[in-house]
Design goal:
Helices cover 9% and strands 57% of the residues. It contains 1 helix and 11 strands. The longest helix has 20 residues, at 3-22.
Length: 216
C-alpha cells in the first residue's frame, strides 16, 4: 500500500479520534459570591453586654473546574470533576475587637457530577463530593491591632451543587451554578484570653456564580 493511500485511510481516523477525545474533557471558570449565615457566639470573651452575633460579608468568589466524562447512559452523563473555589477576603462584623478583620478560604473538592440530557445544548446537572479546605484568618483585628491567634485553619469539606450548562457556540458554553461547601469553621479567637466560639462546629459556604465552560 502506498504512503498516499495509507494517509487517506489514517487521516480520517485521526480526525474522528481527536473529535471523540475532544468530548471527554471540560474546563469552566465562574465568578460570583459566597454567603455565610450569621453565627451566634456561645462564649463570653469580654465581661458585660455585647452583641452575640458575628456577621459575614458576601465575598466575591472564583471557582475553577476540571471535569472528565466517564460514561453515558441514555440521557444521563456521569463526570468526574474537581471544583476549586477561592474567596480571598470575607469581611467579619462584630461590635468587639477580638476577632480577625476578615477571612479567606480555599476549597478543593473532587466530586461526581450527573448531567441530564448529556450532550444536548442545554444540560442541567447535580454534583456531590468532598475534599480539603483551608481558611486564612487575617493578621489584623477588626478595629486595628494584631491577630495573635491562628492565621491558618485546615478543614474537611463536603460539596453539594447544582447547575445548568448552555452550549451556545461549538464547544463553548455558559455555566450557571450554585454549590454548598460545607466546612469546618475558621479560628476566630484573635486575642489571648478571649475565647471566641460560636454555636456551630461546621458552616455552610453557599456559592452562586456564572461563567464559561469549554470542551476539549
Amino acid at each position: 500500500m502506498s504512503a498516499k493511500r495509507l494517509a487517506v485511510l489514517i487521516v480520517p481516523f485521526l480526525i474522528l479520534a481527536c473529535s471523540a477525545w475532544a468530548q471527554v474533557n471540560e474546563v469552566a471558570i465562574t465568578a460570583g459570591r459566597t454567603f455565610v449565615s450569621t453565627q451566634t457566639i456561645t462564649t463570653d470573651p469580654v465581661p458585660g453586654d455585647f452583641d452575640p452575633h458575628i456577621h459575614f460579608g458576601n465575598e466575591e468568589t472564583f471557582e475553577f473546574n476540571y471535569g472528565r466524562h466517564l460514561m453515558t447512559r441514555r440521557i444521563f452523563g456521569l463526570y468526574g470533576e474537581v471544583p476549586v473555589a477561592i474567596y480571598p477576603g470575607m469581611d467579619l462584623h462584630w461590635d468587639q475587637n477580638f476577632i480577625p478583620k476578615d477571612i479567606g478560604a480555599l476549597f478543593v473538592t473532587p466530586s461526581l457530577r450527573l448531567n441530564f440530557f448529556s450532550g444536548d445544548s442545554v444540560t442541567p446537572w447535580l454534583s456531590a463530593g468532598g475534599g480539603y479546605g483551608r481558611f486564612r484568618e487575617s493578621s489584623s483585628l477588626m478595629f486595628g491591632g494584631k491577630n495573635l491567634g491562628s492565621t491558618g485553619t485546615n478543614t474537611g469539606v463536603i460539596q453539594f451543587g447544582a447547575g445548568l450548562d448552555v452550549w451556545f457556540w461549538h464547544r463553548w458554553g455558559a455555566r450557571f451554578e450554585a454549590r454548598d461547601f460545607y466546612s469546618g469553621v475558621p479560628d476566630l479567637t484573635a486575642v489571648p484570653g478571649s475565647d471566641v466560639k460560636t454555636s456551630v462546629s461546621r458552616q455552610h459556604n453557599y456559592y452562586v456564580g456564572v461563567g464559561i465552560a469549554h470542551r476539549f
